Amino acid sequence: MRSERFGENGRRSARGAPIIAALILLLGITGCAMTRPAALPAPVIGDAHRALLRVTVTRQGHLFNRPWQQQQPVTQLAIGVVVGDGQVLVNGLLVADQRYIELETLDTRRKAPAEVAVVDYEANLALLRPLDPLFLEGRRALPLAGEVTVGDRLGVWQVRPGGDVVASEGPVTSVALGAYFQENHFLTYHLSASLPYRFNHITLPVVKGQALAGLVLRHNPAGQAVEVIATPVIRHFLEDAANAPYQGFPMGAFHYGPTLDPQLRRYIGLPEALSGVYVRKVIRGGPADQAGMRAGDVVLRIGDHPLTNTGHFQHPRHGSTSLVHLIRTYYHVGDTVPFQLFRDGAVLTVNVRLAHRRPEQYLVPPYVVDRAPEHLIVGGLVLQELSMSYLREYGSDWQSAAPIHLLYYQQNQDYLDEDRREKIVIISSVIPTPYTIGYETLSNIEVTAINGRPIRKLADVRPALAHPVDGFQRFELRQHPKLIFLDPAELGLIDEMITQRYGIAIP
């Protein structure tokens, strides 16, 4: 069953992979293929080089298992596309935790520093702007292509070290919903082509004729399969970016399932003549909730588009297409869309004002980038909020390697409304000192209360520490050892010892 997601004891067995490494793996970076296809890509005729730029990004992320420490700086390369308004389009994950961005022309080798104008990590798209407003004079903005459908031939523009632009062409084999970043799904083109000149470029443009049809999302050289960020997604991003402030892609904020099961249909009284999807969960405070949708409703139609029993609508070019594409790409944040529902034997309509669900609005944020992870160190206890970035420190198999009780929160966060927590606060580790003997092996312990005061987010910790109980700081924990007591009079000494021994500044 597909859901629409709008809107995660003991010492770790390994240090885990940094979050940026996980982002790079998502992009499918494979480097230059070692074997060439029988037919090599042909040089591009025309002035394609004037529409492309080399992009070099230096970035430095943070270690979430040691939130006071940064990773080693890394440099990534890309081929950006000039798209007008003095801006350059690249993949969004390229600029995550960026420290310096440089643009370079292919023909004259002129260079200029740049900044991020707009970024959307969920859609994996970003616009860069050179600091010198005259740098892109004489460059050619690449127009957006029209609709792309199965059977169309697209070209992936690659750049040789000398600056020559070559194209690898191939047919579009399918157009379907695909995973972009974390649990975000958008329309994706599947292209059959080989990329012998990728040269570790994260961003590569995909064209239809001389118009931009997409950006490479992932590449599997073994199967010559290329996944492409689709044109409608790029068009939506550019339209929103032109109307500051950038709003992001809209969401309806509900989970749904199919209505194929005849027993379910009988249970809810859904007539055979009606088709739609069964609403399993309405996310509290989201657009669907505010519009009055309920769990148990059946969504029959969104706008002018009737839905099938599997949650699809009829796209004029692609045929049966997921309603996720309909909501996220046909509409914009702030649009009010009529939803036709079946409820208690009657058909009714509610008006849903679509909104974007920001990462900080999740119980377990899907990503934390461009800033250091917030944390507190209290008596050697390292406290922070659970996030997907933290879970991904467990490596590419984090979904099985991370602690199961933390994975439970990530996987079921939209169904955990009862305790009204805003975030999951954990003791991620303990810094060894003479004062933490017996606690130094603890990690991934959930904090529920301090001094009898509920902890619903990290910001609740300091106010709770201002009210010791019987002369001690009393930490209530979900897991063993259930309780930890700290002497407030010793906290200053512990902080000083940690700073002297480990060079860690106490926030």
Automatic annotation (TrEMBL):
InterPro entries linked to this entry: DEGP_PDZ, DEGP_PDZ_sf, PDZ, PDZ_sf, Peptidase_S1_PA
Biological process (GO), any one: proteolysis
Gene3D superfamilies assigned to the protein according to its UniProt record, in alphabetical order: 2.30.42.10, 3.20.190.20
Protein name: PDZ domain-containing protein
PANTHER family (alphabetical): PROTEASE DO-LIKE 10, MITOCHONDRIAL-RELATED, PTHR45980
Organism (species): Desulfatitalea alkaliphila
A family per Pfam: PDZ_3
Keyword Protease attributed: yes
Record keywords: Hydrolase, Protease, Serine protease
UniProt GO MF annotations: serine-type endopeptidase activity
Annotated PDZ domain residues: 268-312
